[in-house]
Structures are given as structure tokens and as C-alpha cells.
Amino acid sequence: xxxxxxxxxxxxxxxxxxxxxxxxxxxxxxxxxxxxxxxxxxxxxxxxxxxxxxxxxxxxxxxxxxxxxxxxxxxxxxxxxxxxxxxxxxxxxxxxxxxxxxxxxxxxxxxxxxxxxxxxxxxxxxxxxxxxxxxxxxxxxxxxxxxxxxxxxxxxxxxxxxxxxxxxxxxxxxxxxxxxxxxxxxxxxxxxxxxxxxxxxxxxxxxxxxxxxxxxxxxxxxxxxxxxxxxxxxxxxxxxxxxxxxxxxxxxxxxxxxxxxxxxxxxxxxxxxxxxxxxxxxxxxxxxxxxxxxxxxxxxxxxxxxxxxxxxxxxxxxxxxxxxxxxxxxxxxxxxxxxxxxxxxxxxxxxxxxxxxxxxxxxxxxxxxxxxxxxxxxxxxxxxxxxxxxxxxxxxxxxxxxxxxxxxxxxxxxxxxxxxxxxxxxxxxxxxxxxxxxxxxxxxxxxxxxxxxxxxxxxxxxxxxxxxxxxxxxxxxxxxxxxxxxxxxxxxxxxxxxxxxxxx
Amino acid sequence: xxxxxxxxxxxxxxxxxxxxxxxxxxxxxxxxxxxxxxxxxxxxxxxxxxxxxxxxxxxxxxxxxxxxxxxxxxxxxxxxxxxxxxxxxxxxxxxxxxxxxxxxxxxxxxxxxxxxxxxxxxxxxxxxxxxxxxxxxxxxxxxxxxxxxxxxxxxxxxxxxxxxxxxxxxxx
Lengths: 504, 172
Known about the structure:
- The structure holds two protein chains of two kinds.
- Chain A is mainly alpha-helical.
- Helix content of chain A is 49%, strand content 4%.
- Chain A folds into two domains: 256 residues, Orthogonal Bundle (Flavocytochrome C3, Chain A, domain 2); 127 residues, Butyryl-CoA Dehydrogenase, subunit A, domain 3.
- In chain A, a hairpin with a 6-residue loop joins strand 5 and strand 6.
- The N and C termini of chain A lie far apart (119 Å).
- Chain B is an all-alpha fold.
- Chain B is elongated and about 80 Å long.
């Protein structure tokens, strides 16, 4: 016979009982949670894809495409985020909405940050309003409400600020290129075409609705790349059938992130690549086409404007040379469950160093950022020197003009301004602060500073005869405004000049 | 007396439930596979799928499995490293908080370095004895031979993307 348990013993066993229950409950809870987690992870790994809607070229709304591709759409929507890097990105600046401009948030004005920009673009729309770039989500509204609208921009500015496939197809009766032509040939205004578009760039602009393969939908790019390939000996290049998948991962971006001009008389959008993608080759094409966008009110120079040539500059850099596409850095692969998808929140790789840079470069994130910023700091400093040189040249021409110099006397200096300004503009409006092709970017700035200097010298009797000719060896002598530098270029072949140079 | 045996039965049921649940989870998660040398086990969770696929195509795949390079070559060290990595990998994978491009730890890097030197001892011993290179501290095999196990750029297209301008090819 055991003795009945005493009170403290009973209490102890009760406490033990309760503790075991709690522990067992916690343990089974943890194990069940883990089990469910493993189950979920296994489900994720099965790459689910459900075709909810049948897509075709009449459906431009990205929300409809989103039903089949919710993950990509979710990321695409996040291009509304405004986040800064040291030199790029944007931040939300408050803006009082008005009837003319209902935006409550805009990006920072670059004109206020650097008044030299107003000087170089004086007399042109860009001196009225020029801001930091915001994400893709804002492209249409920022163009609709920019103060540059007061200058009546051509209709084809819409080429890169809206989803256009359905519009092109509608205007061209099912033919993209015909639709593109109709806009120029019927002299549509920006306001007219603006009524036909609804969305910023969307799924349909880069993807085939049936296969989701990348595709080119902008005839200006098709024509530009065909001209470029022809200059390299490849005739009748058809980008949509002849480009590789990896090339397409840059070409779709190159439909818009490029420089261009409007070909008179009907302002047809043209990518000036018939001689190549280097800045001098582009200038040569615009010189040949006798393009002049405006006359500078101070200097009287007939000028051309460079626009965001990211594609052209990337092509001069080591990343392009190594086979790295735009999408590899700006839309790096990411894991969503077991799915590997490309990041459709297109922004600076500095905001996603791990997925973007560290895939190839095995260094700590801070080190990689520091490398990029080193390149950008150097570029930024040289860009400032170049802008000063350009503003000085404009000032000197203006002063000589005021003293009564004739157009013939000013012609060489004006031509140096045209070229030098385009070159500075080219690397400055390029959105990477020199990073896409660091050496080429600083090479261009160095040559542009020299052109500005030569322009100033030409106002004061010209450079001494022993002078090194301006380094624009890739540019064929062109008629018209390019007369002065082509004379200089000819000197290169002069045996006397070469002999002199070799003495140094 | 009656009550205390009822309590013991209840406790046994509880414990049995936890053990059963745990065993099922272990089997469902293929826990046993981690005790083997099969490289597919390392890609059970899809995080290392790319490394696994690259290894299949690598020069080492016929002579070395994951464990040959990534665990020490003694039974205690091997399972200690497996247990340690297994725990942390499960921890981060369950929580989901880890970078997309994964990075080896310094410790695991040393494990791999030792594995290189174990099989290629004849070569590495000569390098270490070399007057010039032997003095280089922290000389690591994978610094140069980073693609032998599983190349990360195996799938990259290693050709310039856009054909260069004809000027770039012209002799100066």
C-alpha cells in the first residue's frame, strides 16, 4: 500500500503534467508549422502558370495581361517608387496642382540645380523645363504636363511616352509601320495623338501576346538598326526575325533609350545610326541631313539636341562587349517562390546590387557601389569642366558678335559650338552619369572641351599651325556647317604636319 | 492510482503525436536525403538549383560531388559542417530572408579551399613552395579557377552583343 500523496507532491505532479502539455503543444505546433511551410515551398517550386485570359494585339491594358502574369505586373507597378541613388533616380517634390498641371508631385528641376543648362539650351524648349527622370509609370503624365508643351512638340514625341501598339495598328489598318507613317504624314499634333493613347509603356510594347517573346514594336528602331547593320555590311536586317534572344534583351530598351531627330518636312522620327553609334558618327548623320533644331539666341549657332542615348553609350562599354544586356542589370532575375522571373521594376542597379552586380562580380556590395560612384564622381567633375568650357565659348561668340564680327568670321566658332555642345549633351543627357561606358564618356568630354577651346581660338586668329587637329577622326568631312573642322581634319594627312607632330 | 495511469497514457499519446508528426515531416521533407552524398539533395530546396545544374555541366562533375568540395574529409568534420549549414540553410529558407545571389561564408570557403588542396596536393605544394607565389598570403584556388565546380556564367552568351562599329576594327 502506498501512502496517499501529500499536497506538495500532488501539486508538483500537476505542475509537471501542465508543463508537458504546454511543451508538447508548442512542439507539435512548431512541427506542424514547419510541415505546412515545407508544403508551401514545394508547391512554389512547381512553377504554376495559369492562362486566365487569351491575349492578343488589341488588348493594351496591362491590368488584363496581369491576370496571366501577376508577379511581373506587381513589379511593373512599382516603377512608381521614387528612390534616389547618388546621382540618379528621383525624389518626390511637392507641386501645387493647377488646371494646366494637376500633378501634386514632380521630380526635381535640373535647370534650377545647374543654371548653365539654361544658357546652353537658351531659345529652346529644354530651357523651359528639364527635370530628373522618374520611373516608367510617370512617362505619360510627365510628358503631358511638362512646360515644354508650350513649344508644341511633334506628335512623335509620344513614341516613347505611351503604349502605342494598338494605336499604330489602328492608324495603319493592322500595319505597325504604316500607322507610324500616318502620324508623320498627316502632320498630327501632339495633342491629337495624346487623345488616342491611354497607358505608359506596357506589356504589349515589348512582348508578343501569344508567345511572350520579346519583340520590337517601334518602326523607328526597326529602321535605325537596319541602317546600322547596313553600314556594317548586313543588308535588309529584320530585327524581329534576325536578333538573338540576348540581343533582344537590350533592343527592346533601345526602342526608346536612344537619341533621335525629326526628319523634315513631316518630322519623321529618325534614329541617326546610318554611320554607327558613336557620337561623331551620329553628328555626321545629322550634319548630312542638314538638321538644325534651333538657333542659339546669344551665339547664333544652329544647334542639334542629344536625347538620352543610353543604348548608344552602353554599346561603347565593356558590359556590352561582354555580352551583358540592359535587362541583365536593370531587370535582373529574381526568385519568387520557386519561380525565376525578371525584375519588372526597372530602375538603377545600385538599388539591387546583389541581384544585379554580384551575379558576376564577387565583391561586397559596398565595394561595388563605391566602384560605381568613383566612376560617376570622376565623370561628374569632368562634365562640370566641359559645361564651363561650353558656356565660355558661347559667351565669347556673343561678345565678338556684339563687337560686330560677321557671320563668316563667326562660322567656325559656331560650328565648334554645334559639335561640342552635342557631345557634352550626349553624355550628360545619358542616364548613367558616365557609367555605361566610362572611358568613352570621358573621352567624349575631353574632345568636347578641346572643341570649345578651338572655338574660342578661332575667334582670336585661330590655333597655331603646329596644332594637333581636333580629334574627330571618325567623322567624314560633311558639307554645310561642318566646313571649318573638315579643313582641320584634312591637315592630318599633310606630311609636314605629321613630321612636326612626330618631333614632339 | 487510476488517475496517474490515465495521466501517463495521455502523456504518451501527446508525445507519440509529436513524434509521429515529426517523423512524417522528416520523411516529407526528404530529411534522410541529407545524410547521403547525392548532390540532388542540395537542390531539394530550389535555391541551389542553378549551382546544381552548372555542376552537372562542369569539369568536376565526374570526380567530385557537393560534399567532396564543401565538407571536410573526416567523418566528424563532415557531419558537423553538414549539421551547421543544414540548420542555417533551413532557417533562412523557411523564413525567406536571404539574398537572391547567394554568397559562400568565409568558413565554408576555407573548407572548399582545403578540398582543392587535398586532391591537387602535388600541384599546390609546388605553388606554396614557389618563391614568388608561396609568399602571397591568402592565395586561393578559386580566385582564378572559379568555374571548375559550377560556373556561374555557364549560361551567359560570351560574345559582344551589338556588332561593333566598323571603325572599331579599322587598323589605325
